[in-house]
Amino acid sequence: MTAPTVLVVGASRGIGLEFVRQYAADGSRVIATHRAPADGERLRRLGAEPQSLDVLDEASLAALGRRLAGERLDLAILSAGIFGPRTAGAEAPAAADFDVVMRTNVLAPMRLIALLAPLLDSGSRLAVLSSRMGSVSLMQSPSGWLYRASKAAVNCVLKAASIELGGRGIVCTALHPGWVRTDMGGAAADIEVADSVAGMRRVLAAAGASANGRFFGHDGSEIAW
Question: CB neighbours of 22 closer than 8 A, spacing ≥ 6?
Fold first, then answer.
């Protein structure tokens, strides 16, 4: 039986790196994107096939598309993302902060979904790493205003993609990893990265057609948009 092919975009550290570690350990063929050459070597040591990528650079994305031409992906995980300014209230972001957060968290997934769609087939799954902070209906705090806006936007991106790709039998989901102990989440976070990723892998493994276009936590609970 052929091992499934998993693509992890944004695999240099944190949650993306742990996805690579766990899928590779289970025998999947893992293609993992990174920026720095040293990160590529670390991914190779884990058993992955490193691919250099700057998600903010159109030429880099196009080059990745050419290198992946002819691949058939069983699972694509878009994990790259940044938090941006750690604001407490409705403070207007600087233009430069707005640009980099929205380009990384929204524009890059839009470009990647369009690039990867031809490599997905019936039964394939596409997951975008989102956050409960992007849920409009559950929002109770203005903290991290720009990050919240970017995750609400990427949820919309994922939902729109699910309408188009779902007709081809591709299951598209948004995932909330929880508050995870990573560089972004900080040392005070309440979930170990290995536990978060193991939970999200269970969600993805169980994701059939009825999961298309939905938003799940790492524990399998559904999150309202």
Answer: 194, 197, 198, 201
- Whether the Cβ atoms of residue 71 and residue 47 lie closer than 8 Å to each other: no
Which pLDDT value is given to residue 117?
Answer: 98
What is the residue type of 148? R
Query: Residue 183: pLDDT band by 50, 70, 90 thresholds?
Result: confident
**Are the beta carbons of 88 and 143 closer than 8 angstroms?**
yes
Q: Name the fold adopted by 5-217.
A: Rossmann fold (3.40.50)
User: What DSSP element (H or E) covers 14?
Assistant: helix 14-25
In this prediction, residue 190 carries a pLDDT of: 87
CA 43/CA 21 separation, integer angstroms: 8
CA distance 201 to 18: 11
* CA–CA separation, 193 and 98 (whole Å): 27
Among the listed residues 127, 135, 205, the one whose alpha carbon sits nearest the alpha carbon of residue 165: 127
Q: Would you say residue 188 has pLDDT above 90?
A: no
What stretches of 70-146 adopt beta strand conformation (E)?
73-78, 120-129
Is-contact 189 180, C-beta < 8 A? yes
Structure tokens at 58: 């159109």
> Nearest to residue 103, comparing CAs of 165, 137, 61, 73?
61
**Nearest in space to 191 (alpha carbons), one of 205, 211, 177, 173:** 177
Which of the four pLDDT bands, split at 50, 70 and 90, describes residue 82?
A: very high
Residue 208 to residue 206: CA distance in whole angstroms: 6
